[in-house]
Amino acid sequence: MNGDGGEDRGGTAADANAAEASGPGAATGTAARLQKLFEGHRLTPTQRRIAHCMVRRAGDAPFLSSVELAELAGVSQPSVTRFAVALGFDGYPALRKHLREVAPAPAARGTGTYNEYQQAVQAEIDNLRHLAAVLADPGPVVRAGRLFAASRPLPVLGLRAATAQAAGFAYFARKVHPDVRLLDEGGTMLTDRIDAAQQAGASTLLCFALPRHPREVVDALEYARAVGLTVVTVADSAFAPVARHTDLLLPAAVGTGLAFDTACAPMLLGRVLLEAMCDALPDAQARLEEFDAKAAERGLFVE
Question: Does 219 score more than 90 pLDDT?
Answer without folding.
Answer: yes
